[in-house]
């Protein structure tokens, strides 16, 4: 199979669709890989490393898209890239199609693209193994970024995350006890903050409380969220409903009730966000102020630690990529973990709910 790895074109996206080690595995299996010139430079991989692994270097993205039977990306294609896609191509990446514009999906349907969303690949136990490393990184980054945003020089309240003797630490409220929430909790506690975790799943709250008994846990109800955000110095949105657009849990009215210069970090913004006042930002301009509250809503947070993120992603995704490369669209039928990740195939929608999920 001809496999294409283009350079990511979205601003401040430094990750790459496959590492040289991954290319070597696919090359040894008899596939021909085309890597766009300097596709891996942001993650620290040179063209020479890819060539030594068995890839051919292409000097335009259009060539990569034009040659590929299987296209391996990180972020969802932009309009120009959608135009370059050949009909019938298999597209794999973190696509988040539940929150994209309908006209982009229409192109995938018209060209009969088989789109496989890594974030929806599901293990038999219901976990999301390919999304997991990015969720781990996003949760860990949320804590370190929140600590910085609380500083006066970033517009924050001038609070040290862990406090000092005689001065209380920051109050962190985390919406979601999944992977992002767990890693954000771990890092925030490590910095000395006081942490409250809210989730609708009692079993998830039990797991995170067993691991971090110093935290406060609450069931996700409107009343509990209202009360919690009022005293929060930082609210971290870590909500995920796979294949669905994220529910709005924090309304504009709740944001207005927060203390001035508090921080909202909506890590779920790539699926639409769980805060009514959230809108996507970039690593260049990561924050904005609305209702007197700092908002940080960067969809591709792990893109700023591209080398770590790419290695972690390839470690988890390689078994699925290898199977898709070997079997093509037959991998959908042969592997029940891949089937839930298929969003479009043969001109039809699959496993994609574009309406907002009901609020908890």
Explain this structure to me?
- By secondary structure, the chain is an alpha/beta fold.
- It has 2 domains: 158 residues, Rossmann fold (3-Layer(aba) Sandwich); 168 residues, NAD(P)-binding Rossmann-like Domain (Rossmann fold, 3-Layer(aba) Sandwich), CATH 3.40.50.
- The chain is built from 12 helices and 15 strands.
- The strands form 2 sheets. The chain has an 8-stranded mixed beta sheet with strand order 3-2-1-4-5-6-14-15, sandwiched between helices.
- Strand 7, helix 7 and strand 8 form a beta-alpha-beta unit.
- Helix 6 runs parallel beside helix 7 and helix 6 packs antiparallel against helix 11.
- The longest helix is centred in the last third of the chain and has 22 residues.
- It is elongated, with a radius of gyration of 21 Å.
- It starts with a strand and ends in an 11-residue tail after the last strand.
- The C terminus is likely disordered.
List keywords for this structure.
12 helices, Rossmann fold, 360 residues, 7-stranded mixed β-sheet, elongated, disordered C terminus
């Amino acid at each position: 199979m001809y496999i294409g790895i283009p350079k990511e074109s979205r601003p401040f996206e430094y990750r790459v669709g496959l590492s040289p080690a991954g290319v070597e595995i696919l090359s040894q299996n008899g596939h021909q890989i085309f890597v766009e010139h300097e596709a891996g430079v942001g993650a620290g991989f040179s063209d020479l490393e890819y060539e030594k692994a068995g890839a051919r270097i292409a000097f335009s993205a259009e060539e990569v898209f034009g040659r590929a039977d299987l296209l391996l990306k990180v972020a969802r294609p932009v309009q120009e890239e959608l135009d370059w896609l050949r009909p019938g191509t298999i597209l794999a990446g973190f696509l988040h199609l539940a929150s994209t514009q309908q006209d982009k999906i229409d192109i995938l349907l018209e060209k009969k693209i088989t789109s496989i969303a890594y974030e929806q690949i599901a293990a038999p136990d219901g976990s999301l193994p390919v999304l997991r490393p990015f969720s781990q990184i996003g949760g860990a980054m949320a804590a370190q970024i929140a600590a910085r945003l609380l500083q006066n020089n970033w517009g924050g309240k001038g609070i040290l995350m862990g406090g000092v003797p005689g001065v209380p630490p920051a109050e962190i409220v985390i919406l979601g006890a999944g992977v992002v929430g767990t890693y954000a909790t771990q890092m925030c506690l490590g910095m000395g903050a006081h942490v409250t975790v809210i989730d609708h799943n009692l079993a998830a709250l039990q797991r995170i409380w067993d691991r971090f008994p110093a935290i406060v846990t609450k069931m996700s109800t409107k009343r509990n969220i209202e009360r919690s955000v009022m005293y929060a110095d930082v609210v971290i949105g870590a909500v995920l409903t796979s294949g669905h657009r994220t529910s709005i849990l924090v309304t504009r009215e709740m944001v207005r009730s927060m203390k001035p210069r508090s921080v909202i970090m909506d890590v779920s913004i790539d699926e639409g966000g769980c805060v009514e006042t959230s809108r996507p930002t970039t690593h260049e301009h990561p924050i904005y102020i609305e209702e007197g509250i700092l908002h940080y809503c960067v969809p591709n947070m792990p893109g700023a630690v591209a080398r770590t993120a790419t290695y972690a992603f390839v470690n988890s995704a390689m078994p699925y990529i290898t199977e898709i490369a070997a079997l093509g669209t037959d991998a959908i039928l042969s592997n029940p973990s891949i089937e839930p990740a298929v969003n479009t195939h043969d001109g039809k929608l699959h496993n994609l709910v574009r309406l907002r999920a009901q609020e908890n």
